Amino acid sequence: MRIGLHKYPALLPFIFLASGIALHQSRAGIAIAVIAALLGIFLIRTVFYALVFVPVGFLIAFLHTRRPMELFVGKRVRVAMTVISPSIARVDSLMTDSGMVEYHALVGVWPPAFEKGTKIDAIGFVAQTDNDYLIGNGVFHTFDVERLHRITPPSSLDANIRRVIGSDLHENISDSLARGVLLAFTIGERRSVPFLLKENFKKAGIYHLFAISGLHIGILFTIFLLILRFLRVGKSAASVISGILLLGYGHVAGYTPSILRAVVMAWAFILAYVSGRRSYPINTLALAGLITLFINPFYLFNIGFQLSYLATFGILLFYPLYKNLPFRWLTVPLMASFAAMAYTAPLLSLKMGYFSTVSPITSYIGGWLLWFALAETIAALATGITPFYRVAELAASLLILTANLFAKLPFSTVSLNPVVSGVILWYVLITALGMALRIWIRG
Known about the structure:
Strand order of the largest sheet: 1-2-3-5-4
Strand content: 5-15%
Number of helices: 16
Largest sheet: 5 strands, mixed, barrel
Number of strands: 7
Number of domains: 3
Helix content: 55-70%
Radius of gyration: 23 Å
Order of helices and strands: HHHEEEEHEHHHHHHHHHEHHEH
Distance between the termini: 14 Å
Shape: globular
Protein backbone atom coordinates (compact mmCIF):
# COMPACT_ATOMS: atom_id res chain seq x y z
CA MET A 1 0.00 0.00 0.00
CA ARG A 2 1.02 3.52 -0.62
CA ILE A 3 1.38 4.36 3.07
CA GLY A 4 2.46 0.91 4.21
CA LEU A 5 -0.80 0.23 5.99
CA HIS A 6 -0.10 -3.52 5.87
CA LYS A 7 2.30 -2.86 8.76
CA TYR A 8 -0.61 -1.65 10.89
CA PRO A 9 -3.40 -4.25 10.59
CA ALA A 10 -4.98 -3.10 13.87
CA LEU A 11 -5.10 0.62 13.00
CA LEU A 12 -8.22 0.80 10.82
CA PRO A 13 -10.22 -1.67 12.95
CA PHE A 14 -9.41 0.46 16.01
CA ILE A 15 -10.42 3.71 14.32
CA PHE A 16 -13.66 2.36 12.89
CA LEU A 17 -14.54 0.56 16.11
CA ALA A 18 -14.15 3.89 17.90
CA SER A 19 -16.29 5.55 15.20
CA GLY A 20 -19.05 2.99 15.73
CA ILE A 21 -18.99 3.61 19.50
CA ALA A 22 -19.14 7.36 18.88
CA LEU A 23 -22.05 6.85 16.50
CA HIS A 24 -23.97 4.93 19.16
CA GLN A 25 -23.50 7.78 21.62
CA SER A 26 -25.03 10.25 19.15
CA ARG A 27 -21.62 11.58 18.15
CA ALA A 28 -22.76 11.06 14.55
CA GLY A 29 -21.11 14.23 13.29
CA ILE A 30 -17.73 13.28 14.74
CA ALA A 31 -17.96 9.71 13.47
CA ILE A 32 -18.96 10.78 9.97
CA ALA A 33 -16.20 13.41 9.83
CA VAL A 34 -13.56 10.91 10.93
CA ILE A 35 -14.77 8.28 8.49
CA ALA A 36 -14.87 10.76 5.60
CA ALA A 37 -11.34 11.93 6.39
CA LEU A 38 -10.05 8.38 6.57
CA LEU A 39 -11.68 7.47 3.27
CA GLY A 40 -9.56 10.18 1.70
CA ILE A 41 -6.33 9.12 3.45
CA PHE A 42 -6.52 5.33 3.44
CA LEU A 43 -7.51 4.13 0.00
CA ILE A 44 -7.28 0.35 0.13
CA ARG A 45 -9.50 -1.84 2.31
CA THR A 46 -10.96 1.18 4.08
CA VAL A 47 -14.54 0.56 3.00
CA PHE A 48 -14.32 -3.07 4.12
CA TYR A 49 -13.05 -2.12 7.58
CA ALA A 50 -15.70 0.59 7.86
CA LEU A 51 -18.52 -1.79 6.96
CA VAL A 52 -17.32 -4.36 9.53
CA PHE A 53 -16.04 -2.40 12.52
CA VAL A 54 -18.42 0.58 12.64
CA PRO A 55 -21.37 -1.81 13.26
CA VAL A 56 -19.27 -3.82 15.73
CA GLY A 57 -18.43 -0.65 17.66
CA PHE A 58 -22.09 0.36 17.66
CA LEU A 59 -23.07 -3.11 18.88
CA ILE A 60 -20.61 -3.37 21.78
CA ALA A 61 -21.57 0.13 22.93
CA PHE A 62 -25.22 -0.95 22.81
CA LEU A 63 -24.46 -4.12 24.80
CA HIS A 64 -22.55 -2.15 27.43
CA THR A 65 -25.24 0.50 27.82
CA ARG A 66 -26.91 -1.17 30.76
CA ARG A 67 -28.55 1.08 33.30
CA PRO A 68 -29.73 -1.29 36.02
CA MET A 69 -29.97 1.53 38.59
CA GLU A 70 -32.45 3.51 36.45
CA LEU A 71 -35.39 2.10 38.44
CA PHE A 72 -34.04 3.61 41.66
CA VAL A 73 -33.32 7.17 40.50
CA GLY A 74 -34.54 9.65 43.13
CA LYS A 75 -35.12 6.90 45.70
CA ARG A 76 -33.44 6.03 48.98
CA VAL A 77 -31.97 2.53 48.81
CA ARG A 78 -29.68 0.30 50.83
CA VAL A 79 -26.83 -1.32 48.94
CA ALA A 80 -23.71 -3.35 49.60
CA MET A 81 -20.85 -2.15 47.40
CA THR A 82 -17.17 -2.72 46.72
CA VAL A 83 -15.11 0.36 45.86
CA ILE A 84 -13.11 -0.20 42.65
CA SER A 85 -11.70 3.33 42.36
CA PRO A 86 -11.86 6.46 44.56
CA SER A 87 -15.17 7.53 42.96
CA ILE A 88 -16.67 4.32 41.49
CA ALA A 89 -18.10 1.27 43.23
CA ARG A 90 -19.55 -2.05 42.15
CA VAL A 91 -22.97 -2.80 43.62
CA ASP A 92 -22.96 -6.38 44.94
CA SER A 93 -26.40 -6.55 46.55
CA LEU A 94 -29.43 -4.36 47.12
CA MET A 95 -32.23 -4.30 49.69
CA THR A 96 -35.66 -5.41 48.46
CA ASP A 97 -38.84 -6.62 50.16
CA SER A 98 -37.19 -10.04 50.28
CA GLY A 99 -34.07 -8.72 51.96
CA MET A 100 -30.62 -8.18 50.47
CA VAL A 101 -30.47 -9.79 47.03
CA GLU A 102 -27.60 -10.09 44.58
CA TYR A 103 -27.42 -7.16 42.16
CA HIS A 104 -24.90 -6.06 39.53
CA ALA A 105 -24.28 -2.42 38.63
CA LEU A 106 -21.69 0.34 38.72
CA VAL A 107 -22.29 3.64 40.48
CA GLY A 108 -20.36 6.76 41.22
CA VAL A 109 -19.86 7.16 44.98
CA TRP A 110 -20.27 10.49 46.70
CA PRO A 111 -18.34 11.53 48.67
CA PRO A 112 -15.34 9.79 47.01
CA ALA A 113 -13.52 9.12 50.26
CA PHE A 114 -13.03 5.36 50.30
CA GLU A 115 -9.96 3.32 49.47
CA LYS A 116 -10.06 0.87 46.58
CA GLY A 117 -11.29 -2.53 47.76
CA THR A 118 -13.33 -1.16 50.67
CA LYS A 119 -16.69 -2.90 51.16
CA ILE A 120 -19.55 -0.60 52.15
CA ASP A 121 -23.06 -1.31 53.43
CA ALA A 122 -24.91 2.01 53.22
CA ILE A 123 -28.19 3.83 52.69
CA GLY A 124 -28.29 6.64 50.17
CA PHE A 125 -29.92 8.24 47.14
CA VAL A 126 -29.51 7.22 43.50
CA ALA A 127 -29.25 9.97 40.88
CA GLN A 128 -28.40 10.26 37.21
CA THR A 129 -25.04 11.80 36.35
CA ASP A 130 -23.63 13.91 33.55
CA ASN A 131 -20.08 13.69 34.91
CA ASP A 132 -17.73 13.09 31.97
CA TYR A 133 -15.33 10.98 34.05
CA LEU A 134 -18.06 8.63 35.26
CA ILE A 135 -19.67 8.31 31.82
CA GLY A 136 -16.20 7.70 30.39
CA ASN A 137 -16.07 4.63 32.64
CA GLY A 138 -19.53 3.37 31.67
CA VAL A 139 -21.15 4.70 34.86
CA PHE A 140 -24.48 6.53 34.49
CA HIS A 141 -25.69 6.91 38.09
CA THR A 142 -24.33 8.12 41.41
CA PHE A 143 -24.99 6.91 44.92
CA ASP A 144 -24.97 9.69 47.51
CA VAL A 145 -24.11 8.10 50.85
CA GLU A 146 -26.55 9.19 53.57
CA ARG A 147 -25.81 6.69 56.34
CA LEU A 148 -23.19 3.99 56.69
CA HIS A 149 -24.10 0.66 58.26
CA ARG A 150 -20.75 -1.06 57.92
CA ILE A 151 -17.35 -0.45 56.37
CA THR A 152 -14.97 -3.32 55.78
CA PRO A 153 -11.40 -2.20 54.98
CA PRO A 154 -9.78 -3.79 51.92
CA SER A 155 -7.92 -6.99 52.67
CA SER A 156 -6.72 -8.08 49.23
CA LEU A 157 -3.04 -8.49 48.41
CA ASP A 158 -2.89 -5.37 46.22
CA ALA A 159 -4.63 -3.33 48.95
CA ASN A 160 -2.08 -4.53 51.51
CA ILE A 161 0.77 -3.63 49.13
CA ARG A 162 -0.66 -0.11 48.65
CA ARG A 163 -1.04 0.23 52.41
CA VAL A 164 2.54 -0.89 53.06
CA ILE A 165 3.91 1.52 50.44
CA GLY A 166 1.86 4.40 51.81
CA SER A 167 2.94 3.67 55.38
CA ASP A 168 6.58 3.33 54.38
CA LEU A 169 6.62 6.65 52.51
CA HIS A 170 4.77 8.36 55.36
CA GLU A 171 7.44 7.25 57.82
CA ASN A 172 10.45 8.13 55.68
CA ILE A 173 9.42 11.19 53.60
CA SER A 174 9.12 14.20 55.88
CA ASP A 175 7.81 16.75 53.36
CA SER A 176 4.06 16.22 52.95
CA LEU A 177 3.91 17.66 49.42
CA ALA A 178 6.77 15.48 48.19
CA ARG A 179 5.21 12.47 49.88
CA GLY A 180 1.87 13.13 48.17
CA VAL A 181 3.56 13.44 44.78
CA LEU A 182 5.51 10.20 45.29
CA LEU A 183 2.32 8.37 46.28
CA ALA A 184 0.67 9.63 43.09
CA PHE A 185 3.64 8.51 40.99
CA THR A 186 3.96 5.05 42.51
CA ILE A 187 0.41 3.83 43.21
CA GLY A 188 -1.79 6.52 41.63
CA GLU A 189 -2.96 7.83 45.02
CA ARG A 190 -3.65 11.56 44.48
CA ARG A 191 -5.76 12.39 47.52
CA SER A 192 -2.71 13.75 49.36
CA VAL A 193 -1.89 16.26 46.60
CA PRO A 194 -3.44 19.71 47.35
CA PHE A 195 -5.81 21.22 44.80
CA LEU A 196 -3.63 24.30 44.19
CA LEU A 197 -0.60 22.13 43.46
CA LYS A 198 -2.64 20.09 40.97
CA GLU A 199 -3.68 23.33 39.27
CA ASN A 200 -0.06 24.43 39.00
CA PHE A 201 0.85 21.11 37.43
CA LYS A 202 -1.95 21.66 34.90
CA LYS A 203 -0.79 25.19 34.05
CA ALA A 204 2.79 23.99 33.73
CA GLY A 205 1.63 21.27 31.34
CA ILE A 206 2.80 18.29 33.41
CA TYR A 207 -0.38 17.15 35.12
CA HIS A 208 -0.12 13.99 33.03
CA LEU A 209 2.73 12.89 35.31
CA PHE A 210 0.11 12.16 37.97
CA ALA A 211 -1.66 9.72 35.65
CA ILE A 212 0.29 6.48 35.62
CA SER A 213 0.76 5.78 31.92
CA GLY A 214 3.33 4.86 29.30
CA LEU A 215 6.05 7.06 30.77
CA HIS A 216 5.75 5.43 34.19
CA ILE A 217 5.42 1.92 32.77
CA GLY A 218 8.42 2.49 30.50
CA ILE A 219 10.54 3.71 33.40
CA LEU A 220 9.46 0.82 35.63
CA PHE A 221 10.07 -1.73 32.88
CA THR A 222 13.57 -0.34 32.34
CA ILE A 223 14.31 -0.43 36.06
CA PHE A 224 13.09 -4.02 36.40
CA LEU A 225 15.07 -5.03 33.32
CA LEU A 226 18.28 -3.39 34.58
CA ILE A 227 17.97 -5.09 37.95
CA LEU A 228 17.39 -8.51 36.39
CA ARG A 229 20.23 -8.06 33.91
CA PHE A 230 22.49 -7.03 36.82
CA LEU A 231 21.52 -10.35 38.43
CA ARG A 232 22.68 -12.04 35.19
CA VAL A 233 19.22 -13.10 34.04
CA GLY A 234 19.08 -13.69 30.26
CA LYS A 235 17.61 -10.97 28.04
CA SER A 236 14.48 -12.88 27.02
CA ALA A 237 13.81 -14.18 30.54
CA ALA A 238 14.44 -10.72 32.02
CA SER A 239 11.98 -9.19 29.55
CA VAL A 240 9.26 -11.72 30.40
CA ILE A 241 9.80 -11.41 34.16
CA SER A 242 9.71 -7.61 33.86
CA GLY A 243 6.43 -7.91 31.96
CA ILE A 244 4.98 -10.11 34.70
CA LEU A 245 6.03 -7.55 37.29
CA LEU A 246 4.27 -4.87 35.22
CA LEU A 247 1.07 -6.95 35.26
CA GLY A 248 1.26 -7.10 39.04
CA TYR A 249 2.00 -3.41 39.27
CA GLY A 250 -0.98 -2.60 37.04
CA HIS A 251 -3.21 -4.58 39.38
CA VAL A 252 -1.88 -2.70 42.42
CA ALA A 253 -2.19 0.73 40.79
CA GLY A 254 -5.55 -0.04 39.17
CA TYR A 255 -6.00 -0.74 35.47
CA THR A 256 -6.95 2.72 34.25
CA PRO A 257 -7.14 3.11 30.44
CA SER A 258 -3.65 4.61 30.29
CA ILE A 259 -2.12 1.81 32.40
CA LEU A 260 -3.92 -0.84 30.36
CA ARG A 261 -2.62 0.71 27.13
CA ALA A 262 0.94 0.86 28.39
CA VAL A 263 0.96 -2.70 29.75
CA VAL A 264 -0.58 -4.14 26.57
CA MET A 265 2.00 -2.30 24.45
CA ALA A 266 4.82 -3.47 26.71
CA TRP A 267 3.72 -7.10 26.36
CA ALA A 268 3.38 -6.77 22.59
CA PHE A 269 6.99 -5.60 22.43
CA ILE A 270 8.09 -8.37 24.80
CA LEU A 271 6.42 -11.09 22.74
CA ALA A 272 7.86 -9.66 19.53
CA TYR A 273 11.35 -9.57 21.05
CA VAL A 274 11.17 -13.09 22.47
CA SER A 275 9.83 -14.51 19.20
CA GLY A 276 12.37 -12.61 17.11
CA ARG A 277 9.74 -10.70 15.16
CA ARG A 278 9.65 -7.03 14.34
CA SER A 279 7.00 -4.93 16.06
CA TYR A 280 5.45 -1.72 14.79
CA PRO A 281 4.64 0.72 17.62
CA ILE A 282 1.65 2.35 15.88
CA ASN A 283 0.12 -1.07 15.27
CA THR A 284 0.78 -2.01 18.89
CA LEU A 285 -0.93 1.19 20.02
CA ALA A 286 -3.97 0.39 17.88
CA LEU A 287 -4.04 -3.18 19.21
CA ALA A 288 -4.02 -1.86 22.77
CA GLY A 289 -6.89 0.44 21.82
CA LEU A 290 -8.91 -2.44 20.38
CA ILE A 291 -8.45 -4.53 23.52
CA THR A 292 -9.32 -1.59 25.79
CA LEU A 293 -12.49 -0.66 23.90
CA PHE A 294 -13.70 -4.26 23.83
CA ILE A 295 -13.25 -4.33 27.61
CA ASN A 296 -15.15 -1.07 28.07
CA PRO A 297 -16.27 0.91 24.99
CA PHE A 298 -17.06 3.95 27.12
CA TYR A 299 -13.37 4.45 27.79
CA LEU A 300 -13.48 6.19 24.40
CA PHE A 301 -15.05 9.18 26.18
CA ASN A 302 -12.60 9.07 29.09
CA ILE A 303 -10.29 12.10 28.95
CA GLY A 304 -7.40 10.00 30.24
CA PHE A 305 -7.89 7.49 27.42
CA GLN A 306 -8.13 10.24 24.83
CA LEU A 307 -5.04 12.13 25.96
CA SER A 308 -3.00 8.96 26.43
CA TYR A 309 -3.68 7.66 22.93
CA LEU A 310 -3.41 11.03 21.21
CA ALA A 311 -0.08 11.85 22.84
CA THR A 312 1.37 8.41 22.11
CA PHE A 313 0.15 8.47 18.51
CA GLY A 314 1.68 11.92 17.95
CA ILE A 315 5.04 10.81 19.36
CA LEU A 316 5.09 7.64 17.26
CA LEU A 317 3.84 9.28 14.05
CA PHE A 318 6.56 11.93 13.98
CA TYR A 319 9.33 9.81 15.55
CA PRO A 320 11.10 9.09 12.21
CA LEU A 321 11.59 12.85 11.78
CA TYR A 322 13.59 13.39 14.95
CA LYS A 323 14.99 10.00 15.99
CA ASN A 324 18.39 10.66 14.38
CA LEU A 325 18.91 14.24 15.55
CA PRO A 326 22.24 15.06 17.26
CA PHE A 327 22.37 15.20 21.07
CA ARG A 328 19.57 12.62 21.22
CA TRP A 329 19.32 12.73 25.03
CA LEU A 330 18.16 16.35 24.66
CA THR A 331 16.56 16.67 21.23
CA VAL A 332 14.53 13.44 21.07
CA PRO A 333 12.60 13.99 24.36
CA LEU A 334 12.00 17.65 23.45
CA MET A 335 10.69 16.83 20.00
CA ALA A 336 8.56 14.04 21.45
CA SER A 337 7.05 16.60 23.83
CA PHE A 338 6.23 18.92 20.91
CA ALA A 339 4.67 16.03 19.00
CA ALA A 340 2.57 15.07 22.01
CA MET A 341 1.57 18.69 22.53
CA ALA A 342 0.40 18.96 18.89
CA TYR A 343 -2.12 16.20 19.61
CA THR A 344 -3.15 16.99 23.18
CA ALA A 345 -3.33 20.81 23.15
CA PRO A 346 -6.48 21.00 20.96
CA LEU A 347 -8.37 18.55 23.17
CA LEU A 348 -7.21 20.23 26.38
CA SER A 349 -8.26 23.60 24.97
CA LEU A 350 -11.66 22.16 24.10
CA LYS A 351 -12.08 20.78 27.65
CA MET A 352 -10.46 23.54 29.74
CA GLY A 353 -10.39 26.66 27.54
CA TYR A 354 -6.59 26.95 27.64
CA PHE A 355 -3.41 25.02 27.02
CA SER A 356 0.12 25.18 28.40
CA THR A 357 2.76 26.77 26.18
CA VAL A 358 5.62 25.56 28.37
CA SER A 359 4.61 21.91 28.31
CA PRO A 360 7.46 20.69 26.04
CA ILE A 361 10.10 22.17 28.36
CA THR A 362 8.44 21.16 31.62
CA SER A 363 7.71 17.67 30.28
CA TYR A 364 11.39 17.23 29.46
CA ILE A 365 12.44 18.37 32.94
CA GLY A 366 9.61 16.45 34.56
CA GLY A 367 10.46 13.25 32.70
CA TRP A 368 13.99 13.18 34.10
CA LEU A 369 12.82 14.06 37.61
CA LEU A 370 10.12 11.39 37.41
CA TRP A 371 12.78 8.86 36.43
CA PHE A 372 14.87 9.67 39.51
CA ALA A 373 11.81 9.81 41.77
CA LEU A 374 10.54 6.39 40.68
CA ALA A 375 13.93 4.69 40.57
CA GLU A 376 14.94 5.95 44.00
CA THR A 377 11.52 5.18 45.49
CA ILE A 378 11.70 1.57 44.25
CA ALA A 379 15.25 1.26 45.59
CA ALA A 380 14.15 2.73 48.92
CA LEU A 381 11.13 0.44 49.25
CA ALA A 382 13.21 -2.59 48.34
CA THR A 383 16.19 -1.90 50.60
CA GLY A 384 15.02 0.56 53.25
CA ILE A 385 18.26 2.54 52.77
CA THR A 386 17.74 6.15 53.88
CA PRO A 387 19.72 7.94 51.10
CA PHE A 388 17.35 6.50 48.49
CA TYR A 389 14.42 8.14 50.28
CA ARG A 390 16.28 11.45 50.39
CA VAL A 391 17.01 11.43 46.64
CA ALA A 392 13.40 10.49 45.87
CA GLU A 393 12.17 13.32 48.10
CA LEU A 394 14.59 15.75 46.45
CA ALA A 395 13.42 14.74 42.94
CA ALA A 396 9.77 15.17 43.95
CA SER A 397 10.52 18.56 45.57
CA LEU A 398 12.33 19.77 42.45
CA LEU A 399 9.38 18.69 40.33
CA ILE A 400 7.02 20.63 42.59
CA LEU A 401 9.32 23.65 42.33
CA THR A 402 9.33 23.32 38.52
CA ALA A 403 5.53 23.21 38.38
CA ASN A 404 5.14 26.20 40.69
CA LEU A 405 7.73 28.33 38.86
CA PHE A 406 6.47 27.67 35.33
CA ALA A 407 2.81 27.98 36.34
CA LYS A 408 3.46 31.55 37.56
CA LEU A 409 4.97 32.71 34.26
CA PRO A 410 2.64 35.18 32.50
CA PHE A 411 2.87 33.25 29.23
CA SER A 412 2.59 29.75 30.71
CA THR A 413 -0.96 29.32 29.43
CA VAL A 414 -2.87 30.63 26.44
CA SER A 415 -6.64 30.93 26.44
CA LEU A 416 -8.25 29.13 23.53
CA ASN A 417 -11.82 27.99 22.95
CA PRO A 418 -11.87 26.01 19.72
CA VAL A 419 -14.99 24.52 18.15
CA VAL A 420 -15.31 20.75 17.73
CA SER A 421 -15.16 20.94 13.94
CA GLY A 422 -11.94 22.96 14.15
CA VAL A 423 -10.33 20.39 16.45
CA ILE A 424 -11.32 17.54 14.10
CA LEU A 425 -9.93 19.45 11.11
CA TRP A 426 -6.65 20.00 12.98
CA TYR A 427 -6.28 16.30 13.74
CA VAL A 428 -6.99 15.36 10.13
CA LEU A 429 -4.43 17.87 8.81
CA ILE A 430 -1.67 17.10 11.32
CA THR A 431 -2.12 13.35 10.78
CA ALA A 432 -2.03 13.74 7.00
CA LEU A 433 1.13 15.86 7.37
CA GLY A 434 2.78 13.24 9.56
CA MET A 435 1.97 10.46 7.13
CA ALA A 436 3.21 12.48 4.16
CA LEU A 437 6.50 13.21 5.96
CA ARG A 438 6.95 9.52 6.80
CA ILE A 439 6.48 8.63 3.11
CA TRP A 440 8.95 11.37 2.11
CA ILE A 441 11.57 10.13 4.58
CA ARG A 442 11.28 6.58 3.28
CA GLY A 443 11.87 8.00 -0.20
